[in-house]
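Schema walkthrough. Field components (list of strings):
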Amino acid sequence: AQSVTQLGSHVSVSEGALVLLRCNYSSSVPPYLFWYVQYPNQGLQLLLKYTSAATLVKGINGFEAEFKKSETSFHLTKPSAHMSDAAEYFCAVSSNTGNQFYFGTGTSLTVIP
Amino acid sequence: DVKVTQSSRYLVKRTGEKVFLECVQDMDHENMFWYRQDPGLGLRLIYFSYDVKMKEKGDIPEGYSVSREKKERFSLILESASTNQTSMYLCASRAGLAGVRETQYFGPGTRLLVL
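Field assembly_structure (string):
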């Protein structure tokens, strides 16, 4: 069975501050991990993904995430928040033994000017 | 670029009506998915299809059915709409016959209100 847990349904940061969105996964097989972003009234857009290559993954818009097997984590970071980063962020897990993605419940990011 | 389109952005229906939500993708993807998104619950999989005329139930299929007569089109059907089906519905598609390292591409969503 696979699942993800996103700690913190709402995160607020000041403009220019570090963004850290947490994701922990559960998987009995090697996982593939994804971060998606959803802007208001839009569908989901891929930010980055981990598919067993480099453990530090760089994505679009200055985001990156690090796969840590020992901690079963895939936290999303950005060094300096921008107003345009305000959105909902979803972590998802899958594997090569199934056909589904399993999404977390999402984290809403607010950026304070 | 992959494009996934959904027939309506906003839809208002009455209880008991039959509702069709259409999704079309233009990248010849084998797999297509229907999710519903509700606050605090994230995305929940309703149905998916890995080939024409093939379908599999997801986590919450009750009250829904699907149709995939052509590879590019995947329809979600609410046989008799109820107020607890008021939600945001998201369609997605993905390449590959097996394995899920490939990216899922999402449509813009349909916000359905059932009165």
